[in-house]
Structures are given as C-alpha cells and as structure tokens.
Amino acid sequence: MKLPIHGPYSLTCDDVLGVDELYEAYGKLIGHGYVVHDHNSRDHVGEFENISALEACATRFQGGSRRFDMSVNHHGLDLVILSFGLSGQALLYQQNGVECVARNGSAILHTTDAPLQAQVDRLGEIMAVALPREKLSSIIGDKDALTPRVLPANSAAFSLFAGHARTFLSLGIAPDIGLAQLVGDQLCDLAALALGVNSRGREKVMSAETLNDVRYNKAINYITRHASDQMLSEKEIARQLGLSTSSVRQIFARKQTTPARIIRTVRVEMAARLLLDSKHRSSKIVSLAFDCGFQSVSAFYEAFRDHYGMQPSEFRASVRQTQD
C-alpha cells in the first residue's frame, strides 16, 4: 500500500471560514470525514501542516477543536496512526470500544479502519503520523499489537520516532521516491521499536543500526533543504548532527555512499525539476545550475550527464517535445 507523495501542505482558519471548514479541508486531503462538536466558538484558531511520502504521512495540528469524530478512511487506506500532544495536553481517544488516555507527550495508537471519537483537555499542538499497517505488522511480528493503546513518552524509541517525524514534517519540499522510501522505512522501524518488536527488531537495536539510520535520514533531510546553498559541506552536516566529519563519513559509508555523492544527486534532481517546470521555460541552464548549488557549469553538466545519460539541454528538449 502506497500513500501519495505531496506536501508540505498547510492551511489556517484565516484561509477558510472557520474550524468546521478547516477540518473538512483536512479530511479531503487525507481521506477522512470529520464531525466537530465544539464549533460554535469563533475564538478557536486552527491550522495544520501535512506531508505525505509513500509509506508515511505526518500532520501537525495547532488549535482547532477540543472534541471531534473521525470516520474510516474513504480511500480504503489501511493505516496505523500514532497521535501525540506537543503542548503537554491530555488526549482521550476511543475506538472499537477501547478508551485510551495519553498525557505528557505519550502517544495513542489508533487505526483508519474504524471510527474514532477524540477529545483533548485543552487546545495546543498535536502531531499524527500514519504508517501502513501491513508493513508495520511485518516488522513487529504481532498483528494484535496494532490495536488502540498508549505508548509512553519516556520510551527512547518513541522519543526518536517523535523527533524523526518532526524532521520529516519540516522538509521544505516533497521528497523524491528514494528519500520517501527511506523516511517510511525509518519511521516504521522506530514505531516498531516503540511498540515492541520481534527478534529481528531487537537485534537492530543492539547493533545500533536504528540510531545510525536516524542520523543518516536527518543528514539527508538537511541536505535536501539546503542543497541550493553552495557552501553546503560535510563540515556543516556534521555540525547539524553534533558529530565529527569522520563520523558523518562513516554513517554514509554504511549506506555505500558519501555526503558529496548525495549532495550532487539532490542538486541534479532539483535542476531536473526546474527544467520540467514551465515557469522556468525561458531560464538559462547556467542560471539554474547556480540556483541549485553548483559552483561551476562544467561540474553541473558532468553530474547531470552521469545521472540522466544526457545533457541538460537535451533533457529539456525531450520534455518539450513530449508536452507539445
């Protein structure tokens, strides 16, 4: 099961009539119907941010409603959702006759195949991360674990999961397929660790593979957001991760790659998207190269040819022929 790649997408009550319409717009985006029970106050300020990438979907909701109902997924998506407060509020969710209360940043696991009744003791920020049930079940090795329950906030695995989800949502652009798959893998792995996993999952923890993966994904996210900066370097990535440059090289080496190779790939794919964009139809290729972080035209042409097997001008021409 694959989720659509989109985002980041955001909407606030300033853009629509009120809280009811905000939830309606959000529901259309993710495939759920919402009934808001405290919509009579115009003082409620609400907004949401959402990003979706193949095997993971993350949403941050600010304000909105203290009590609402959510329908089953209209698109038939069979997902597991982990919802947790970011402002210290208590969450009270009820699904399939099971009532769960999460306090102090703890999470509630619920699913998209049954209606949900939800309320909070006060408004604030809430994050919800949706993952494919089938994939998560295969990692955990126990389908019964994916029923409504509370995950404590003091779990190291859940803390990593929550931080990873916030990093995912902070991406400035929708991830490409490769990064989308990586994000889904890491969030599912961390969620499985927080829920309790089979022997394969425990071995990953003991080998520190998961921590390495989280650091790698954080580095990838940083590169994606700052690829257009010509000063982007291993040293800057290391500073962001709080590691030495040699440690960063080791993290990438475990993935059979290097920071420089990833930076070049991200920049080339960014340039390709600009070449496809009708808004840049008349832009000079040299200007696009510099806009994407390349410091020389020759380096850009070499990287583009290595990645796509043709020159940028040939790539642009082939796209125009297809469009015409």
Describe this structure as you would to a colleague.
- The chain is of the alpha+beta class and 324 residues long.
- Among the domains are: 3-152, Jelly Rolls (Sandwich); 270-323, Orthogonal Bundle (Arc Repressor Mutant, subunit A).
- It contains twelve helices and twelve strands.
- It has helices spanning 19-30, 133-140, 156-169, 177-195, 199-206, 209-226, 234-241, 245-253, 259-276, 285-291, 297-308, 312-323, and strands at residues 3-12, 34-36, 46-54, 57-63, 67-70, 79-85, 91-95, 98-102, 107-111, 116-120, 125-132, 149-151.
- The protein has a seven-stranded antiparallel beta sheet, with helices on both faces. Strands 2-5-10-7-8 form a five-stranded antiparallel beta sheet, with helices on one face.
- The longest helix has 19 residues, at 177-195.
- The chain is globular.
- Residues 217-318 form the HTH araC/xylS-type domain.
Task: Produce a short descriptive summary.
With 324 residues, the protein is α+β, with helices and mostly antiparallel strands.
Topology diagram in text:
Blueprint: E1 3-12, H1 19-30, E2 34-36, E3 46-54, E4 57-63, E5 67-70, E6 79-85, E7 91-95, E8 98-102, E9 107-111, E10 116-120, E11 125-132, H2 133-140, E12 149-151, H3 156-169, H4 177-195, H5 199-206, H6 209-226, H7 234-241, H8 245-253, H9 259-276, H10 285-291, H11 297-308, H12 312-323
Antiparallel strand pairs: 1-3, 2-5, 3-4, 4-11, 5-10, 6-9, 6-11, 7-8, 7-10, 9-12
Helix pairs in contact: 2-4, 3-4, 3-6, 4-6, 6-7, 7-8, 9-10, 9-11
